[in-house]
Design goal:
flat, 5-stranded antiparallel beta sheet, 22 helices, alpha+beta
Length: 822
């Protein structure tokens, strides 16, 4: 086999070398053919260029000869016509389409083409050229553009009519017109190409002048008479590059390869042609495939021959290899069967070991396991089964488990033998317990299909499930009969469960609520509250909140207190929540009624305090005006009596002096009492001045050190709050002076931006707030209650903090109203 592989490898290498050599020879042959063809093509281009030049020169000589006829110099028009027609018959087959005579105005006066007679060419370039005296006796070749694919030229010479008595060779006379031949260069090219090479055709020739203007181009007739440098945007659709044309114009003679889109690659040979005022480049092109086609055909023939050889060698090699492989395969089959027999023996030994392992596993299982065959004979039981049901003793399964002589009517063996796996439960009357049976097909030791059954005692689980169902029933009864509503929603906010009480509260049936979003039962404002609470539930926050619900019909609503609890799965993902919904509509109504009552009480208190202040001002005026004046009169009378007493009445004088002093003391107390009842300084000088006066009098009357740090509050608070602040501070200072036993008092008044804050602190004995608050209203007195009532009337707040032996702190806060001025 190895020797055959070597032979095949060498054959393949030889074929590869022959193929590469064939391709190399093919490539060199193509290069040689192309080189020779380029030389021949360039020679042909030169020949065609020379033929065109010789033809134009010959026609130029004929034109000069005709222009020298006497009739054209001095004769009349009839003679000129006869001479021109006679000459035209002589050159009829020389590709001259017409001979025309133009007068000095550019009008055709005589022509072999009747259609041309009478036409004017005064604006033509060749006529303008002929009018120039320096071009006398010179020949001009000018292209004519009747159609793009034509190659028509006008060969012309100026005519000058001399003076009759002068000699013909003298250079004098005036311009008399011009004589022109119309040449059909395309017909000339066709004849030249056919005579030189029958396979050539005019489509392989194109002509351009030295400036790049195309005179003849079969591939692009629309570009004829246009310069190659005048390019448009759509030129790129055909030309990959214009380098080959620019190279032709630069070299003027040579060979180029070029490619135009959607056209085959071509070989172009070109040569220049010069004559008088023209310089042309004649290009002859041939498709590349035409040159190399026969070489490719030769390559295909050689490759075909190689293919036949390769096929023959492949078939021979295949037959040899097939024979060797058949021999090797037979040897391998013998070895394979020997290995298979050895593997089978090992597998049987391993299977026996696996059976022992399986028996060990089954014997050690906590569940019962046994195996029966299709005759219901018990092949195996593990110790758990024998412990539960006793020894088998050769009995069949229905005799062993059920004490039945025949097969049980509920037996699942046939389903198992049909290839199914069956699971079922059985209550044993022998043991009084419940078992879970799992039956599955298994291959027996003899290769027949048997039934493997697992037995699990589920009696305890059944009792637990029964207890759980009873417990669930009790809890469901509790949920359904509770006075509060209960609802469960999923993670999308959709009702998953509602109890009867919640349905009753909202007026819907359970079927109308379950499956609908909870937001369907809320107005817009409460929907925002609910969404905010759901976001908090997702973060694990638990907080009760109030929510109003739309009752069925949407016209009324109820107020509830919602106590939620989020539900998360084992991975901590939010799966919804449940909530207890308590109807607090009656409580909310009672709170609204209480607020209204408090509002009325606050109004009555305001009126009462206003009346109290009014009464105080009245009493203060009466004390000051009536009683004060009466005491003053009494004082004056005692003074009068004292003055009228005799000198020896010293005791009476002393009594009068004591009476006057007592009256002065009473007057001062009446003034103080009058000021306390209605401080005129508050109305006359404002709150700040009244507070300073009050604090100074407090310090004098109680001999307590006062530290005052205050701002001007008159501009911060409205007028109607001044009395409240004054009375509150007055009451606080009075309590400190009477009950605190303080030695130092600190009073601070400042502005915190939204409120004016009043801090009153003392270092007195203080009191226990819990004990004080636990007293009945009669035991607490009216001082603190009056202070708080006054402050609440002006939407302020009063906070009192105290501990026994640590003094007391009173904080008064009054809202600032913007725009308040004195």
């Amino acid at each position: 086999m190895k020797r055959n592989r070597v032979l095949v490898t060498l054959t393949v290498i030889l074929l590869a070398v022959v193929s590469l050599l064939t391709l190399h020879l093919h490539y060199e042959g193509i290069q040689e053919v192309l080189s020779q063809f380029e030389k021949d093509q360039l020679s042909y281009a030169k020949h065609l260029s020379n033929q065109i030049q010789f033809y134009i020169q010959a026609r130029s000589q004929g034109l000069r000869s005709l222009s020298s006829f006497p009739s054209l110099q001095y004769g009349d028009l009839n003679q000129q016509t006869r001479d021109i027609e006679a000459y035209a018959k002589q050159i009829e087959k020389l590709y001259v389409k017409s001979i025309s005579l133009y007068d000095e105005h550019g009008t055709v006066v005589c022509s072999t083409d009747p259609k041309a007679i009478g036409s004017k060419t005064r604006e033509s370039k060749f006529f303008a050229w002929a009018q120039q005296s320096e071009n006398r006796d010179r020949i001009s070749l000018t292209p004519v553009f009747p159609e793009p694919q034509s190659l028509t030229f006008i060969l012309s010479i100026p005519l000058y009519r001399g003076v009759p008595d002068s000699k013909p060779h003298q250079q004098n006379g005036k311009f008399a017109g011009l004589l022109a031949f119309t040449l059909d260069m395309k017909a000339f090219l066709i004849d030249q190409l056919g005579s030189a090479d029958p396979r050539m055709n005019p489509d392989q020739v194109w002509i351009t002048d030295k400036n790049g203007t195309l005179l003849f181009q079969p591939d692009h007739p629309e570009m004829v008479f246009r310069n190659i440098y005048q390019r448009e945007e759509n030129c790129g659709s055909c030309h990959i590059s214009f380098g080959y044309i620019e190279g032709i114009l630069a070299k003027r003679q040579g060979v180029f390869d070029y490619k135009i889109r959607r056209h085959p690659k071509k070989i172009a040979a070109f040569a220049s042609m010069e004559f008088e005022n023209i310089s042309w480049i004649v290009v002859v092109n041939t498709p590349y495939d035409r040159v190399t086609g026969f070489m490719r055909k030769s390559l295909r023939e050689h490759l075909s021959l190689l293919g036949v050889v390769v096929l023959a060698l492949s078939i021979g090699s295949g037959l040899v290899i097939r024979k060797e492989r058949m021999k090797i395969k037979a040897e391998e089959e013998v070895a394979h069967w020997q290995e298979k027999m050895a593997e089978r023996k090992k597998a049987e030994e391993a299977l026996e070991g696996e059976r022992d392992k399986l028996k060990g596993i089954l014997d050690s299982m906590t569940d019962g396991v046994y195996i029966i065959n299709q005759q219901h004979e018990i092949l195996y039981t593990n110790p758990v089964v024998e412990k539960e049901f006793g020894p088998v003793s050769g009995r069949k399964c229905h005799e062993y488990f059920y004490d039945f002589p025949d097969i049980c009517s509920w037996c699942k063996a046939q389903e198992v033998f049909a290839g199914k796996t069956v699971r079922w439960e059985w209550d044993s009357f022998k043991t009084g317990r419940t078992y879970d049976f799992f039956d599955t097909p298994i291959m027996g030791p003899d290769g027949t299909l048997c039934k493997l059954q697992f037995i699990r005692d589920i009696s305890d689980r059944k009792r637990a499930e029964k207890a759980l169902r009873q417990s669930e029933k009790r809890y469901r009864l509790l949920v359904e009969t509770m006075n509060d509503g209960l609802g469960v929603q999923d993670e999308h906010g959709v009702w998953a469960y509602v109890n009867d009480r919640l349905c009753e509260m909202l007026g819907y049936s359970r079927e109308e609520m379950i499956g609908r979003p909870l937001t369907d039962f809320l107005n817009d404002a409460d929907q925002m509250i609910y969404k905010g609470q759901v976001a908090r539930r997702k973060r694990g926050e638990i907080e009760s909140y109030e929510l109003s619900w739309l009752i069925k019909g949407g016209k009324e609503s109820i107020f509830t207190l919602v106590s939620p609890k989020p539900i998360f799965d084992d991975r901590g993902q939010f799966k919804g929540s449940f909530a207890i919904v308590t109807d607090i509509t009656e409580r909310k109504q009672a709170e609204e009624a209480l607020k209204e009552t408090e509002k009325q009480l606050r109004y009555l208190s305001s009126q009462l305090l206003t009346a109290q202040e009014t009464e105080r001002r009245r009493v203060s005026r009466e004390l000051h005006d009536e009683l004060g004046q009466s005491l003053t009169v009494m004082k004056l009378r005692l003074n009068f009596i004292e003055k009228n007493l005799l000198n020896h009445q010293t005791d009476l004088k002393r009594e009068c002096e004591n009476g006057v002093q007592y009256i002065d003391q009473v007057i001062e107390n009446i003034r103080r009492l009058s000021r306390d009842l209605s401080p005129t300084i508050l109305e006359d000088f404002g709150l700040s001045a009244a507070l300073r006066w009050l604090i100074n009098n407090f310090a004098k009357n109680y001999t307590i050190k006062v530290i005052l740090n205050m701002i001007d509050v008159d501009s911060l608070l409205p007028r109607d709050t001044h009395v409240v602040v004054y009375r509150t501070v007055q009451e606080a200072l009075t309590n400190i002076g009477k009950h605190s036993r303080a030695k130092n008092v600190r009073i601070t008044i400042r502005n915190n931006g939204n409120s004016a804050l009043f801090f009153i602190e003392d270092d007195g004995i203080g009191f226990d707030e819990k004990v004080t608050n636990a007293k009945s209203p009669e035991g607490r007195g009216l001082g603190l209650a009056t202070m708080k009532g006054r402050v609440q009337m002006v939407r302020g707040s009063l906070a009192i903090s105290s501990r026994e032996g640590k003094g007391t702190q009173i904080t008064l806060s009054i809202p600032i109203e913007r725009g308040v001025t004195d």
